[in-house]
Amino acid sequence: MIQHQPPQMITLLYLAALLLACTALADDKPFRPVAGKFPPLDKAHAYRGELIFVDHANRRGSIRVKGTGVFRRNDPHPFAMLPCGIVRYHGATADLRDIPLGTVMHVRAFLPPDPTISAVPVLPINNKEKDANHNRGAGIFPAENHVLLLEDEPSHCLREGKIWKLMEMEIRNNAGKIVARREPKTGGKADEEILSFDAATRNWRGRECLGVKDLIAEKIWPSNGKKSFEEQAVQLGITWKPTPGGIFTRFHISDIWLDDLAMQRAAQNQTETHKTFIKSRWMGRCGRLRQVWSRKDNRHPVWRHG
Fold first, then answer.
1. Residue from 70, 78, 72 nearest 127 by CA
2. CA count, 13 A, side-chain hemisphere, 84
3. Integer Cα distance of 256 and 263 in angstroms
4. 289-293 and 225-240: which strand pairing?
């Protein structure tokens, strides 16, 4: 005997199915920042690459994004900073003008909030999955080109609690390569990476800035040959330069911070640079806070810039 469902039950089942379908469609819809709200960092698309052009006045620029192919063949990828976007350099707040061209930057970016008024090209949503051909690989032209966070290598590592560990080096005529890996300070496995260095690489130790020749003179580094670092923990500044020998992708070390004091001084110097820039552009004395009393309630102090 067939039992017929009451109309109310059928209606409820239909509404439940419709709600599930709408929820699935909402989950599939790509995330875009909303005006007046800070977008969550965990929903941003992450990539890194070489900063090759900056329009600091309009907070725009271009990055050669690292993909799966030959890095030197990748074309510039334009980006625009979101109004709430943050730039960090040497572990401190910065302006785009502070970042030297050639610096390898880590990017957290979103789709354009409003594609109709985007200041940079609007690309297909799945563009990061497309192969760019000519041995360039995929991932070099992501549609996520509105940046929330733009930071250099030490800023990225300090924020995420990571450190570079040097494994070994090979040197000849004050230049060579270093094998290192970036891993969490708490420990964990990471892939090794080969990076180049040369006589212009700066080595920061405490308050000192040492060149490669200085380290050789102190017999810390050999003049020629190989040396094991035994997982020496450092922070690295990373750039890119053409690599001879048919190497497709190899980044270059511009700076090595050998201890925490050296890294802290770099952050302090960048902080002072940014504070001076802000003050000189009539944006108030933001370097310190002063405590004033609210007129409505003298029992509760209010912190204001002054």
1. 78
2. 13
3. 9
4. unpaired
Domain boundaries, the chain: 41-156, 161-264
The mean predicted confidence, pLDDT, of the chain is 86
| 295-304 b/e (C-beta count within 10 Å ≥ 16 → b) | eeeeeeeeee
Q: What is the pLDDT of residues 173-203, one digit of tens each?
A: 999 999 999 999 988 888 999 999 999 999 9
Q: Cβ atoms within 10 A of the Cβ of 60, count? A: 18
Beta bridge mates, 165:
181, 233
For 19-60, give the DSSP string: HHHHHHHHHHSPP---TTSPPPGGGSEEEEEEEEEEEGGGTE
Rounded to two decimals, the pTM is: 0.82
**Going by C-beta distance under 8 Å and a sequence separation of 6 or more, which residues neighbour residue 61?**
51, 53, 54, 55, 78, 79, 96
Instruction: Kindly list the distances between the CA atom of residue 209 and the CA atoms of 104, 140, 213, 266, in Å, as whole numbers in the listed order.
Output: 21, 35, 12, 11
How is residue 156 written in tokens?
């990225």
Q: In this predicted model, what pLDDT tens digit does every residue of 208-241 receive, in sequence order?
A: 999 999 999 999 999 999 999 999 999 999 999 8
* 39, two tokens: 């977008």
DSSP class per residue in 262-278: HHHHHHHHHHHHHHHHH
The C-alpha atoms of residue 295 and residue 109 are separated, in whole angstroms, by: 42
CA pair distance 151, 104, nearest whole angstrom? 9
Element holding 165 (H helix, E strand)? strand 162-172
CATH number for the domain formed by residue range(s) 41-156: 2.40.50.320
The CA distance from 107 to 36, in Å, is 21
Strands 251-257 and 202-205: parallel
Q: Which of 48, 36, 151 is nearest to 82 (CA)?
A: 36
